[in-house]
Design goal:
HNH endonuclease
Amino acid sequence: MSRREFTKTVKAQIVKRAMLASGEITCEGCGLILGKKAYEIDHTVADALQVDKNAKLTADDGKLLGLDCCHKPKTADDKGKIAKAKRNEANHLGFKTAPAKKLRGAPFPKSSKPKHERQALPPRQLYEAKP
Ligand SMILES: [Zn+2]
């Protein structure tokens, strides 16, 4: 199922929750006053990890995060968790996700020099016969 997005009403609720009495918007992750900096309404639990997607998203499901201070790092972290959850699910259901193929580069160039022949040494005696 596709990702659920917050409705405008819910987004407004979240923005109001993150707003100080002075009207400044703060990051709900770290408390930074964002001023004119970009922010995102973040799914507190990444939506790809939600099992029940029929329920409507509410203001409790989202957080206002500053784009640079909290949202980008969390998104990177969530992507790892989502990939892991997908692998676990595949293992549980008994199939493997296709393994990433090994990168194949160009082979080493063939040398134009003739191959060096090694001369065989005479066999060495480990023990000497005593007279
Ligand atoms: Zn933050």
